[in-house]
Structures are given as structure tokens and as C-alpha cells.
């Protein structure tokens, strides 16, 4: 049949984006809102979420939820999932984007600092995925995207061993989840950006950034929209045959 109705096709899908207060997460969340999805902006910063809530068009307000929580907090995640289900009755998409980065050398990393990066970047992704998979299984439809990093594939570029280890851990988590959920209409993929324009990246000093750009074949850092469009594709109906994959988005910095 030509031109028949397409199942939901973006409209009506409910997406959770963690770390949506700024940077990549914000761009991913706004892209999904643009496509007609209902979007849950999650961030530990109430202030960033409040600003977004204030700035968003009045006619989109009924498609947004803003939840302040720390992705390390299992109970808070559970409460958030309950709130979303009460309001919208389903959860289709989870983008584990919240992350922190440090560039401390191994000999100087304290145990607290190590545990803090692993728990936000890796444990947070695990906890959120664990909290939504039964809902996605019931729906027999789900998309989980873990925003990992080039650092998790290649080792640190501008980051420490704790950051790279947490990002490598997300790649392993992606593959295991993809395998475990493959019979339930749920796909799980990872994205591995190298350097993408963001408030965090603006903290790099100019000399360091110039050196990095010098090594990127495409000759520039990436744009946030280039990542958010890729996430959108992986969350679409047509991407159903892609699971357990890692998508490099790095201007050719790593070719494999
Ligand atoms: N920007 C890049 O070049 C780049 C490259 C590779 C990977 N990444 C990954 O992409 C993701 C986003 O990067 P970004 O540059 O936009 O970061 P960013 O620092 O600009 O934004 C991260 C957001 O996550 C939130 N956050 C931090 N810890 C949290 C927690 N415990 N609970 C809830 N929210 C928390 C912050 O408040 C912030 O709003 C991160 O996982 C990062 O590792 C970014």
C-alpha cells in the first residue's frame, strides 16, 4: 500500500534526554521537540531547566516536562519515570547524554574524582536504562542512545583515564543492552563524538584546541546539530535494523 499511515512517526513519541540543560543534550531535546515528540528535559541544574522552560514557545509547553535530578540517584530516576508515565503513559526514547569530563592525569586522580566520573557517565546511563526497559518491553518499541565519546574508543584526547574508562564502559553497556533487548522491538546504540562545539568545549584553551583541530581531517570541530540529527535518525522508525552499533562523529579523527 502506498501512502498509508505511519505508526506514530515521531508524533506522540515520548523522549527523555538527560543533561538537557545545555550543550549537546539541549540540542538533541530541541530537535526532538521540533519533530513533534513529547520531550522530558532532565538535568541536575534547576536553573538551566528553568531558563529553557521560560524560553520555550508557549504552544510547545504541553509537549515538554522539565525534571531536575541527578542521574546517580536511583530513587529520583524511579520517581521521574512514574511522573512521565502518569502524564503521558509511555516512554519511547531515552538519550543518556548527561556527562562530566576531567583531564586529570592518572597519578593525580583521587578515588572520589574517579568514582564521580564513573557514576555520572556510566552508572547514570545504566540506572536510567534499567528504569525504562520494562516499559519499552511492554510497548514492544524503544530506542536507547548512549552518548559516549571518541575517548572511549581511542583513549584520552583532552580527557583523563576516568572519563575515557566511563565512555568505554558505555560502549560495552550499549552492546549488552542491544543484545538483551533485541527481541523486544528495542534498539540500543552509541554515538562517539570527538570534539563538538559546546559550553564545556569552550573551556579548552586556544592552543590546545588549535592542536586538536590540526589533527582533524575535516579541519574543524563538529556542530551540535550534526549530532542531534544523527540521534534523531537512530530514534526514528526506519532505524529498526540498527542495534548495538557505535556511530563515530569525529571529522575523520578516527577511521576504523
Ligand atoms: N562536546 C563534546 O565535544 C563531546 C565530545 C564527546 C562526548 N561528549 C559527551 O556528550 C555529552 C554532552 O556533552 P556536552 O559537551 O554537551 O556537556 P555539557 O557539560 O555542556 O552539558 C552537560 C549537561 O549535563 C548536566 N549534568 C552533569 N552531571 C549531571 C548529573 N549527575 N545528573 C544530571 N545532569 C547532569 C549538566 O548540568 C549539563 O547541563 C557528555 O556525555 C559528553 O561526555 C561531548
From TrEMBL:
The keyword Oxidoreductase applies. The lineage of its organism: Bacteria, Bacillati, Bacillota, Bacilli, Bacillales. NCBIfam families: PRK12826.1-2. SUPFAM superfamilies: NAD(P)-binding Rossmann-fold domains. GO terms for molecular function: oxidoreductase activity. Keywords: Oxidoreductase. It comes from the Bacteria. It comes from Salicibibacter cibarius. InterPro entries: NAD(P)-bd_dom_sf, SDR, SDR_fam. This is SDR family oxidoreductase. Belongs to the short-chain dehydrogenases/reductases (SDR) family.
